[in-house]
Amino acid sequence: MKRNKKREFQSSELVKSFARIHGFEHKLIAFEIKDFLEDYLDESLFQEIISVNLDNKIIQIRINSPLLKNDFNMRKSFYLKKFQDKFGEEKFNDLQIL
User: Fold this and answer.
1) What strands lie across the sheet with 94-97, from one edge to the other?
2) How far apart are CA 83 and CA 74, in angstroms?
3) CB of 34 closer than 8 Å to CB of 48
4) Do 92 and 33 contact (CB within 8 A), yes or no?
5) Overall pTM > 0.85
6) Distance between CA 12 and CA 19 in Å, rounded?
7) pLDDT for position 4
8) Residue 31 phi/psi, 5° resolution?
9) Which runs of E-coded beta strand occur in 1-98?
10) How far apart are the C-alpha atoms of 3 and 36, rounded to whole Å?
């Protein structure tokens, strides 16, 4: 059974062009990454993620749990490759776990 997400949105061309004009298309991508992590991770693990941001093609994920932070650091290239496959290789070139 699929549950409804808090911020389920349809990224139509209108929304994307509005984001491009006003300069916050990186924030839309960060929301999509966070939604992807919500689906990919267990709910208790996802609760440990504080924020996801995109800055100069670098994904910054803030994690509260030291264990999850260590896991992300150890599997950093795996997660970066997953994000590049899902959203496009040209959008990201690094992943920071904070």
Assistant:
1) 49-55, 58-63, 94-97
2) 16
3) no
4) no
5) no
6) 11
7) 54
8) -65, -40
9) 49-55, 58-63, 94-97
10) 14
Scan for tokens 């959203």, then name that residue: 87
Distance CA 22, CA 36 (A): 24
Please report where in the chains the tokens 């496959």 appear, as a residue: 85
> What mean pLDDT, rounded, does the chain reach?
80
Angstrom CA distances, 81 to 15, 52, 59, 77, 95, stand at 26, 16, 12, 6, 10
Tokens matching residue 30 = 């960060």
- What was the pLDDT predicted at 6? 53
Other CB atoms closer than 10 Å to residue 44's CB: what's the count?
9
Q: Which of the given ranges, 1-10, 17-26, 60-69, has the highest pLDDT on average?
A: 60-69
- Are the beta carbons of 79 and 72 closer than 8 angstroms? yes
- Range with the lowest mean pLDDT among 9-18, 27-36, 65-74, 84-93? 9-18
